[in-house]
Design brief:
The protein is of the alpha/beta class. It folds into two domains: about 5-195, Alpha-Beta Complex (Spore Coat Polysaccharide Biosynthesis Protein SpsA, Chain A), CATH 3.90.550; about 200-285, no CATH class. It has helices spanning about 20-25, 45-55, 70-80, 100-105, 105-110, 135-140, 150-155, 170-175, 210-220, 230-240, 245-260, 265-280; strands spanning about 5-10, 35-40, 60-65, 85-90, 95, 115-120, 125-130, 145-150, 185-195, 200-205, 285. Strands 1, 2, 3, 4, 5, 6, 7, 8 and 9 form a nine-stranded mixed beta sheet that branches. α11 (about 245-260) packs across α12 (about 265-280). The longest helix is centred in the C-terminal third of the chain and has 16 residues, at about 265-280. The protein starts with 5 loop residues before the first strand and ends with a strand.
Length: about 290
């Protein structure tokens, strides 16, 4: 079996301090059929100068304004040629130089359209991942930097929906897991060293949780009171309060306190959000 071409897309904006390590982790891979694409959002901090140092080994580079990270990823899909596509964060790194070779064993590829593994958080070395069913995915997403998508999936099921500026990858994964014909395969291997430190401010996707909650109720016929919907009640409730829909928002937040495995977590998160709003750390709704 020939080694299929893998397109690795790095979306970047002002990441001078980390982009070099991300690129290097790709170039060091022992798997010998990779094309690297860099989609830059118009960086101004010296990121482009770092990228130029690797120019001879990068298949495609563009630097221009975009409509958000998922718009940039869609550009990467359009520019790529690989049978498989993987998205690496500009502040993340592939776990070892044999990561792709391990994941791309013929037995894995032959059995999958959606291949995924685990990540290791850089903050505490905790491993995050595990195998998912559709219902398990409703409760918790797969880390985007642990997923390899067969290119044909985007052609058949569409690209990332930029209506969701924070969680379009979650919506994509849910969309694909709903399709019984799509072969998903979990490999118990760490794919990426994932930078989970992030920013101190919290950003909530304005539409995702409300849209998904409506879908689960109408199409999947999941009960309004199901523990599966705990996070959706909380975040949709918070967005509703933000939009001054007090009764609706309060009802959904209350539901997140009363059902599901993380009642205390969401109760405490409500208090944390309240304190953040009173302080300098603002919660953004996008």
């Amino acid at each position: 079996m020939t080694s299929p071409l893998l397109s690795i897309v790095i979306v970047v904006y002002n990441a001078k301090g980390t982009i070099g390590q991300a690129i290097q982790s790709v170039l060091e891979q022992t798997y010998n059929n990779i094309e690297l694409l860099i989609i830059d959002g118009g960086s101004t901090d010296g990121t482009l100068e770092v990228i130029k140092e690797f120019a001879p080994r990068i298949a495609y580079t563009v630097s221009e304004k975009d409509k958000g990270i998922y718009d940039a990823m869609n550009k990467g899909i359009a520019a790529s040629r690989g049978e498989w596509i993987f998205f690496l964060g500009a502040d993340d790194r592939l776990y070892t130089d044999t990561t792709i070779e391990t994941l791309f064993h013929p037995a894995n590829l032959e059995a999958a359209d959606f291949l995924y593994g685990d990540v290791e958080f850089t903050s505490n070395k905790r491993r995050y991942g595990g195998s998912k069913t559709y219902r398990q995915l409703i409760e918790q997403n797969i880390c985007h930097q642990a997923i390899f998508y067969r290119r044909a999936l985007f052609g058949v099921h569409g690209n990332y929906n930029i209506r969701y500026p924070i969680l379009a990858d979650y919506e994509m994964n849910l969309r694909l897991f709903r399709q019984p014909a799509i072969r998903t395969k979990y490999v118990p291997a760490i794919v990426t060293l994932f930078n989970d430190k992030g920013a101190s401010n919290v950003t909530i996707d304005r539409y995702f949780h409300g849209d998904m909650l409506g879908y689960y109720l109408a199409n999947d016929h999941i009960s309004f009171f199901s523990p599966l919907l705990q996070q959706y009640h909380f975040y949709y409730g918070y967005v509703s309060l933000f939009n001054k829909q007090v009764l609706k928002g309060s009802r959904h937040i209350l539901m997140s306190w009363l059902s599901g495995k993380r009642k205390l977590f969401f109760f405490l998160l409500t208090g944390k959000f309240l304190l953040m709003n009173l302080g300098n750390k603002k919660i953004k709704i996008r």
